[in-house]
Amino acid sequence: MANQGKPLIVENVSKSLGGNKIIKNMSFSVEAGKIYGFLGPNGSGKTTTIRMIVSLISMDEGDVKIGGYSIRTEREQALSQIGAIVENPDLYDFMSGRKNLIHFSRMSRKKLAPGRLDEVIKMVELDHAIDKKVKMYSLGMKQRLGIALSILHEPSVLILDEPTNGLDPKGIRELRTYLKNLAREANVAILVSSHLLSEIELMCDRAIVIKEGQVINELAVSDLEQGDDKEVAALFGVTNPEKAEEYLAQYGTVRKEEKYLVLEGTTIEQVPSIVTGLVKQEIGIFHVSYKKSLEDTYHSLTEKEVM
User: Fold this and answer.
1) Alpha-carbon gap, residue 67 to 78, rounded angstroms
2) Residue 199: which region, alpha, beta or left (left: phi > 0; alpha: psi -120 to 50)?
C-alpha cells in the first residue's frame, strides 16, 4: 500500500448540513509515530471532521484514506486500520477490564494475534487492575481501558476526541505519557482533538488548526516561530522555585510545568535581564529556554479572517 508513512490522509473533504457548508475542501495528513493536535474554535468543524474520518457520517466530496484504504470504496479495510474514542468509551461497569477486552475483541473481524491481549494490558499499564470490575476504576483508568479497546486490533491510526475531559491533573499527565509511548513504541499516528492548548503543547509533535471548516495552518509545536519583540513562554529551571516564582511574577504570568517555572508574556529581549535579576536574588539557574506559546500562535491564527 502507498503512503505507509502517512496512515491518515484527508483529501479535499467537504460537508454540508442544513444547507450550510460546514467543512470546505479540507485536506491534511498525519505521519506514523507522531501525535497531532486538532485545534479550532467551537463550531469550526472538528467533531464533524472526526465523524467523517471514522465513517459515522458521510462526506459530500473528497475522500479519507486510512492505512492506504479509501473510506469511500474500501470502507471495511479502512476502518480496520483505525481506532477511535469519539465520546466517552462505552464500557461494561459490571465486568472486569479483561472481560471487557475479550468481549470487544470478539466483535472484531480481525482475529487477535496470540498474546495481543496481555500486550495491550501491559501497554496501557492496567496489569494491576485488569481483573477488577470496571466500576472500581478511576476515570483515568477507564480512559486507558477505552484506549486499549481502540488499539486491540493494531490500528495504524488512533483518534481521540477530548480525551482529558474529566481527568484530574495526575490522570492527564499519565494519559499524556502513555500516548507519547504508544506513538513511539507502536508507531501509531495519533490525532487528538482538545480545547486544552497547554496540554496539546506538552503532548503533541504538531498541531493542525482549523477555522470555519478549513485548515488554516499546521504547526510544529516544538519549533514555533518568534522574533525578539514577540511574546514568548520562557522556561526556567531554578534551585529555589518559590523565591523565583515571586520574582518572575513582575514580568508576567508564572505557572509550574514539571520541574520548570514557565513565564508567560515576556519577550526574548527581556530574558537576559531576567536571568541577571535571578542571579542577584541568589537563585541558582540550571536551565533557560523559550518559545512562543501555542496559545499565542493559536489565537493569532484563529482571530484572522479566513480567505
Assistant:
1) 7
2) alpha
Q: Which of 174, 126, 183 is nearest to 155 (CA)?
A: 183
Range scoring the smallest mean pLDDT among 192-201, 210-219, 270-279: 192-201
**Grid coordinates in use for 57?**
457520517
When pLDDT is cut at 50, 70 and 90, the band that residue 227 belongs to is: very low
Q: How many CA atoms lie within 13 A of 206 on its CB side?
A: 17
Domains of the chain with CATH codes = 8-221 (3.40.50.300), 231-291 (3.30.70.980)
Report helix angle 169-186 to 139-151, nearest 10.
20
Nearest one of 52, 68, 65 to 4, comparing CA atoms: 68
Rounded to two decimals, the pTM is 0.72
Cell 496481555, located at residue? 118
CB atoms within 10 A of CB 111: 10
